[in-house]
Design brief:
- By secondary structure, this protein is α+β, with helices and mostly antiparallel strands.
- It folds into 2 domains: about 1-115, no CATH class; about 155-268, no CATH class.
- The chain is built from 9 helices and 13 strands.
- The strands form 2 sheets. Strands 5, 6, 7, 8, 9, 10, 11, 12 and 13 form a 9-stranded mixed beta sheet that branches. A 4-stranded mixed beta sheet has the order 2-1-3-4.
- The protein is globular.
- It starts with a helix and ends with a strand.
């Protein structure tokens, strides 16, 4: 069964939350599933604003990596739209109602979100958030697939940390080309990196929705310790000088003598 339609059958509501102008440009029914379009400037959706911010904060560690409200507006709602799945407040687990501060609210509550924003490079988007407060349902993964399809995205950039097990989700889209192996100016400077992902004209998204897998026959050239900053700096130098290219192969991160990353190295 297709992943997106399966979640809808389970009662999850796919939504898009952004400026009216952006909503009009999205695919209204990606994978044949109609998006609930929610205009962010409508006062009746103010609680939805709050819930997106709260679920992002819960997923990313509150004040350390959680999304400030101004980022949610300037880098989310105005240039693009948040997409994910929502459910009626009454159906939420009691602990989650407390964490999200639901109170007497009875409407739809977002339980996952993903967002990308367009870059100056035609057809390439920057994916900077993917989160869910209901783990084990593939909601984060499905939200990313849904959003990239609705945007009409063909390739994307992202920033991640080598020790983040969300890499197992990101590498389901294919091997990640490591554009910047070391990003010392990030909030997490020790092991953050920038990656690029080719969606093959959208064919990757269609395959993933059907439950398919993106295979990569390459074997790792070496295993990178997820906190081996000196090696990351060495890789960054090789990438900057044009001597090497690197890919993070699926599954992205494994537990083996600590946390390790399978890296394919191409000498140029």
């Amino acid at each position: 069964m297709h992943i997106i339609s399966s979640l809808v059958e389970q009662g999850f509501v796919p939504y898009a939350f952004g400026s009216r102008a952006n909503l009009e440009l999205l695919h209204p029914s990606p994978f044949g599933v109609k998006l609930l379009m929610l205009a962010a400037d409508d006062p009746k959706h103010l609680r939805f604003h709050d819930f997106i911010n709260r679920l992002n904060g819960l997923a990313y560690g509150g004040k350390d990596m959680g999304m400030p409200a101004w980022v949610q507006i300037d880098c989310g709602i105005l240039p693009s739209a948040f997409m994910g799945f929502a459910m009626p407040a009454a159906m939420l687990p009691e602990k989650l109602k407390w964490s999200l501060d639901i109170g007497a609210y009875q409407g739809l509550v977002p339980v996952s979100e993903a967002i990308s924003i367009p870059t100056a490079q035609p057809g390439r988007w920057m994916s900077y958030s993917m989160s869910t407060v209901l783990p084990g349902r593939k909601l984060g993964f499905a939200s990313k697939v849904l959003s990239l399809k609705a945007y009409g995205c063909r390739s994307c950039l992202g920033v991640a940390q080598f020790n983040n097990f969300a890499l197992r989700i990101h590498t389901r889209f294919g091997a990640l080309e490591i554009i910047e192996p070391h990003v010392p100016y990030h909030t997490c400077p020790t092991n953050s990196f920038v990656y690029a992902l080719n969606l093959q004209g959208g064919a990757v998204l269609d395959m993933l929705d059907r439950g398919g897998r993106i295979e990569d026959p390459r074997e790792p050239t070496f295993m990178l310790g997820a906190r081996d900053t000196p090696k990351m700096k060495e890789m960054a130098e090789g990438a900057r000088t044009g001597s090497y290219r690197y890919w993070l192969l699926p599954p992205g991160v494994i537990r083996e003598d600590g946390v390790q990353n399978p890296i394919f190295e191409e000498r140029l």
